[in-house]
Amino acid sequence: MIDVNACIGPYPYRFIPHPDPEVLARVLEREGLQGAWVGHLPSVFYRDPTSGNAQLYTTLARFPNLRPVPAIRPDWPGWERAIATARDAGAAAVRAYPPQWQLAPGDPRLSELAIACGEARLPMILSVGFEDLRQRHPLDVAGDLQAAAVRALARAARNVRLIVTAAGRAFIEEVHWGLTEEEQRRVLWDFSWVWGPPEDHLARLFRTVGSERFVFGTQWPLRLTQNPRANLDLLPDDVAKRPLADPERLFP
Amino acid sequence: MSAAEPLIDAHAHFLHAGCGRSDWREVNAARLRAGEAMGITCHVASVLGTFGFSSPTYFPSPSDVSVGNDAAAALYDAHGGLVRMLVALNPNYTGHALAEIERGVARGAVGLKLLASRRADDSLLDPICEAAARHRLPILHHIWQHRRREWPNQEISDGLDLAQLARRHPRVTFILAHIGGGGDYHHSYAAIRDVPNIVADLSGSGVDRGMLDDAVGALGSHRLLWACDITMETGLAKLRALEDTGLSSPDDIRDIRWRNAARVFGLEVAAA
């Protein structure tokens, strides 16, 4: 199993302990995970993520099971070149942060990025949020990703593949049931923010949306890696052994 | 840590037929199912009126408070030591709250539960705290970790508000609820660090890395109670993190798992 939702680097709004690739590699081993798709957390907040991406590629080169996931900002001149660089660097996917970049749902530049990623056979990773809304720093005013943004991107083209992280049950259901069946197949979810028992949101989603629409993600280094595993371990019997999607096989 | 080691969830809730949810039995069963899988030996639980069905969850009417407490007592009667009850209260109705305490004590309550019906430092809470001291009952207080403004549907309190109340009632143990339940837990640690009659429970959906490290650093393992509230997977994750990351010694982890809760709630627990 692969963690599709990990990052390295510090976070501007609070201290997080040792967000370093060496530590992530040890954590993956402890958790029995084969590898991780890794973004660069500070780049979320850079005006131009290019230098952060370069640092990410360099830093991860020593870790064969940590694949880089650069951030590509589609309102920045020349962003198309970053797609080619990502492919050359062996990137597993591309990250985009519409709320932090103030790109509204339906912004055509986001759709262009999603389509370009699809043509390069790179999934696009979106994060609903990084912290609980109630604890955010007064300067952290970006807000959460909106479900409408995901629906718009899923409808952009056949070759689009989205992985949405840190969504809760209501968000997932709003997107999933607002798409055609073909569009639904373009969207995968991590369940790092989905509730387990007693409300059993994850079990409900496995029964309704289907476990094959979910991938494993932790949101390390912001959150405990133990959480999604605990969620799987507490599933009721009827959904306990259902398979997750393989993030390495999202494209035909 | 041995699976046979006791494990007390210091912050649990159960539903009942009056909550307006057709799936209330399934939710309760899911808590017991997951609790068994995790090795929970005691759910210290409260029932918050009708959870919003006929009066607001955090401002329950007196009649809803009584209905909820009756449901909690019925769970205790049905499950014995596996479920112990806290008496939920709305301090805006002093006479009713004091009567509920007496009724709860007679039915085996091990503590009191205050929601967000009145700010924690308000003098209306004093007679309740005096009753708690008389009966040697701890008070689990719903807390917003650092209130910077008002939020709808609650009259929220934070660590500073609770600290004021705790200083007025040094014979009562207060449990600051759910450090992972939203807000800035670092503020709570700083607010209660020097108030020894406040302990904190670890529950809440938040599983931030660093949250446990800083809780142990600020309060010490002796003042932390393991708990789940309404997300049991986060409780299990925190339990595993305590063990995986070497934050605490095995003896400290025993304190957090059950010994602190047993002390605070006056529970008799057989050690493994």
Low-confidence spans of chain B: pLDDT under 50, at least 5 residues?
none
Unreliable spans of chain A are: none
Number of helices of chain B: 9
- How is the largest sheet of chain A built, in terms of strand order? 4-5-6-7-8
Chain-averaged pLDDT of chain A: 97
Label the overall shape of chain A.
globular
Radius of gyration of chain B: 17 Å
Provide the number of structural domains of chain A.
1
Share in helix of chain B? 40-55%
- According to CATH, the homologous superfamily of chain A is Metal-dependent hydrolases
Helix content range of chain A = 25-40%
CATH fold name of chain B: TIM Barrel
Strand content of chain B: 5-15%
Q: Multimeric state of these chains?
A: heterodimer
CATH architecture of chain A: Alpha-Beta Barrel
Number of strands of chain B: 8
Radius of gyration of chain A, taken over Cα atoms and rounded to an integer in Å: 17 Å
Task: Classify the secondary structure makeup of chain A into a structural class.
Answer: alpha/beta
Order of helical and strand elements of chain B: EHEHEHEHEHEHEHEHH
Output the structural class of chain B.
alpha/beta
